[in-house]
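> forwarded from #structure-qc
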């Protein structure tokens, strides 16, 4: 999780896709999802981290906030979605 959060906060080629994964876990309806084919674009270690976290999610039924990652997810959201204009419902 630490490596995924750190990667999502960088300017690397994988950063946006890692952010997409983390933000989809946080709230897919608001933030969209991760295209599974994006796994082809990750270094092996990052892909394995994503698969590990995905397995954890399936077993534990927890969101990042439940695990104490709310501040880190907020930082990733600001970096990758902060300029998004939300239309009123």
């Amino acid at each position: 999780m630490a490596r995924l959060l750190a990667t999502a906060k960088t300017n690397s080629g994988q950063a946006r896709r890692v952010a997409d994964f983390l933000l989809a876990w946080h709230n897919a309806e608001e933030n969209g999802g991760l295209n599974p084919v994006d796994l082809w674009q990750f270094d092996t270690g990052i892909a394995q981290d994503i698969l590990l976290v995905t397995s954890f999610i399936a077993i534990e039924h927890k969101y990042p906030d439940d695990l104490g990652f709310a501040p880190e997810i907020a930082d990733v959201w600001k970096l990758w979605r902060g300029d998004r204009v939300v239309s009123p419902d």
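QC bot note: The chain has one domain: 2-81. The two ends are 33 Å apart (CA to CA).
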